[in-house]
Amino acid sequence: MTEMIPKHEFWRRQYSADRYMEAISDAELDLRFADVFTNQLLLCAHGKIGIGAGLWTEKFAHLQAEYSIRGRDFPNAAEIERRLIVPSQASSALSERLKQDYPNGVPPAFTLFKYGKKEHLAPLIDKGSLRLMPASSYEDPSLNPATEDSELHFEKIWKGERTRYRSQFDYYCFCSSFLHLDRLIADFGADSILVVRDPWGFFRRIAETLNETSFQIYFKAVSYLDPLLLDEAEVADVAVVKHMRFAYQFEHRFVAMPTAETPLEPRHLELGSLHDIATLYSG
């Protein structure tokens, strides 16, 4: 007779057969709890917080199994406060403006959403005034947790062995999202959203204006990786991969990678008006 068990119990048994978190420390386990819980959380209607399903529910069941094996309780909020990103209520005016054109946040065609302040995004759409930042500048604890990251490194942990991948050189990047979520408005402290309707046209304008033959320039969606579940896979390009903790951001990025070691400073570009390919929404 086939045994019928709840899905969460199946996942716990599944984990017991492949205890992939065994080699990480208690502190690292708590940070993983924060990362999984961050991605489970949803910002629902009227600012209410909900819990999503799917992949993150399975990972959470695996966490429950590992905590049980260690005889530990889940961490309290104060212990993981810096890492846990709880959705905050979005600007209702800005959210409603965007929903008039993108009711569920999913555009009908490839589209980019750039969250920020009107003082920066208005010059971007009006004149194409764009500030390209080195990836190294995002490794800054003064930034909010949704933005701060070590963009030059990625660490894989497999069977207790740690492999640290590093970008060969510092590089320029411009980050946006290819889906809209209300929680990203608060995450990035945004009072405006620049919606780019022609991302490839935008990419060409940046590339042509930067005009650096000594840079490799590309434009692609970020791949979010679980550092404990990569097995023997290698990380080929740190510039377009991120830790799974940021998966809910659905990031797409422009990358300009130098072909030799060179110190990078912020670059100010003038692309020309973007009104033909973009729309600015403000609250």
Keywords, separated by commas or semicolons:
283 residues; alpha+beta; 2 domains; five-stranded antiparallel beta sheet; 7 helices; 27% helix
* Largest β sheet strand count, sense and barrel closure: 5 strands, antiparallel
Series of secondary-structure elements, N-terminal to C-terminal: HHEEHHEHEEEEHEHEEEEEE
Measure the end-to-end span. Answer: 59 Å
Task: Give the helix proportion (percent range).
Answer: 25-40%
Structural class, please?
Answer: alpha+beta
**How many individual helices?**
7
pLDDT below 50 for ≥5 consecutive residues: which ranges? none
Q: Could you tell me the radius of gyration in angstroms?
A: 21 Å
Please state the overall shape, judged from the principal axes of the Cα atoms: globular
Q: Tally of extended strands? A: 14
How many domains make up the coordinates?
2
Q: Give the overall pLDDT as a whole number.
A: 91
Strand content: 15-25%
